[in-house]
Amino acid sequence: MFLSDKDLKEMMKRESDPFIIEPYREAQLTPNGYDMAIEVIDKEGETIADKVYEIKPDELIRVKTIETLGMPNGYMALMLLRSRFTRQGLLGLFAVIDSGFHGKIIASIKNLSSETVSMKLDEGVIHMIVSKMASGSETPYGSSEKSHWQHQK
Fold first, then answer.
1. For a designed S-S bond to 3, which of 84, 93, 121, 130 qualifies (C-beta 3.0 to 4.6 A apart)?
2. Per-position DSSP letters for 74-96, written without gaps between them
């Protein structure tokens, strides 16, 4: 079951194991998710651009969300590139946000078109859709040594 804007707001208010989006901006909440802002980073994770980025044809960039996420146990999220960017020929390379994950998301975006595409990074580039799992996880992300990216900054 995918969560609505109303569901996400209610989860953020919970005292126990809340859903976390920091910083949260109401304007980025959508009927079925949240549009995350990004910054473009280099191989060391340092910011290259945080407001606007011109992604050239065939260029692959690494991005990091501005928001820190906290995914409660029993929930997970999918990430998609906002449709306005896919219509311009961009491809987002994303993983699933696991139940129990806490931190920033690092991903990649590739320009498959023959045109340079301008992205306003703080308006939300990655769309996140949150889903309730059938039950809570026995080993949520962060509960084992395999959780390499927990609290990623």
1. 130
2. TEEEEEEE-HHHHTTTEEEE---
